[in-house]
Amino acid sequence: KQEVTQIPAALSVPEGENLVLNCSFTDSAIYNLQWFRQDPGKGLTSLLLIQSSQREQTSGRLNASLDKSSGRSTLYIAASQPGDSATYLCAVRRQYGANNLFFGTGTRLTVIP
Amino acid sequence: DGGITQSPKYLFRKEGQNVTLSCEQNLNHDAMYWYRQDPGQGLRLIYYSQIVNDFQKGDIAEGYSVSREKKESFPLTVTSAQKNPTAFYLCASSIDKWQTQYFGPGTRLLVL
């Protein structure tokens, strides 16, 4: 079974700082990897999706990287803002199996004004 | 507007009662999913459906039931057999199992 781990569980940074969130997974046979954002009491919003053949994806101040061989992905947030405060979840889509999407437990980010 | 709706936002269950959570999508997606989210834990898959009139158990299906009679709708029933139902329930849909899942706003279920 695919295990997805996100460290740290919580992170606080002052506004304006650049930061990195980490995601690791145990089975490298992945189809793609996705980063989501979840605000308190809300559903998930997709931020970036990286196909297994890609090394990184960028959207605005967000950059996600993927290293399949080492089972790692990072989400880089540049010039953090208080509005970035949320929980960020990593989800790995496996190449096989009917039930093929596995979520990490998330990193709760607080950006302090 | 296209999207996924879930209702109600909050739901209260009495002991021994079955309750049904609604999930509707107008994205013309074939696949739909139900997840349970508990504090400090990731999303856990309850049931999923890849096409109308078909559904499969996920990792924690005991005490839950679903139906998929229409493409747009995938209701989840929390039965009295589910002894610890208090959680945040999320519904999602996707074109197929390989594509991005789009999530609804969630239903919080509380036990009286």
Walk me through what this model shows.
The complex is a heterodimer of chains A (113) and B (112). Chain A starts with a strand and ends with a strand. Chain A has no helices and 11 strands. Chain A has 113 residues and is mainly beta. Chain A is 0% helix and 59% strand. In chain A, strands 2, 4, 5, 9, 10 and 11 form a 6-stranded mixed β-sheet that branches. In chain A, strands 1-3-8-7-6 form a 5-stranded antiparallel β-sheet, with no helix packed on it. Chain B is mainly β and 112 residues long. In chain B, strands 2, 4, 5, 6, 9, 10 and 11 form a 7-stranded mixed β-sheet that branches. Chain B has a 4-stranded antiparallel β-sheet with strand order 1-3-8-7, with no helix packed on it. Chain B starts with a strand and ends with a strand. The model of chain B has no long low-confidence stretch (mean pLDDT 94).
Secondary structure layout:
The complex is a heterodimer of chains A (113) and B (112).
Chain A: E1 4-7, E2 10-14, E3 19-25, E4 30-38, E5 44-51, E6 56-59, E7 62-67, E8 72-77, E9 86-94, E10 101-103, E11 107-112
Parallel strand pairs in A: 2-11
Antiparallel strand pairs in A: 1-3, 3-8, 4-5, 4-9, 6-7, 7-8, 9-10, 9-11
Chain B: E1 4-7, E2 10-13, E3 19-25, E4 31-37, E5 43-51, E6 54-57, E7 64-66, E8 76-78, E9 87-94, E10 102-103, E11 107-111
Parallel strand pairs in B: 2-11
Antiparallel strand pairs in B: 1-3, 3-8, 4-5, 4-9, 5-6, 7-8, 9-10, 9-11
So what's the overall shape of chain B?
globular
Oligomer: heterodimer
> How many DSSP E strands of chain A?
11
Largest interface: A-B, 23 and 25 residues
Poorly predicted regions of chain A are none
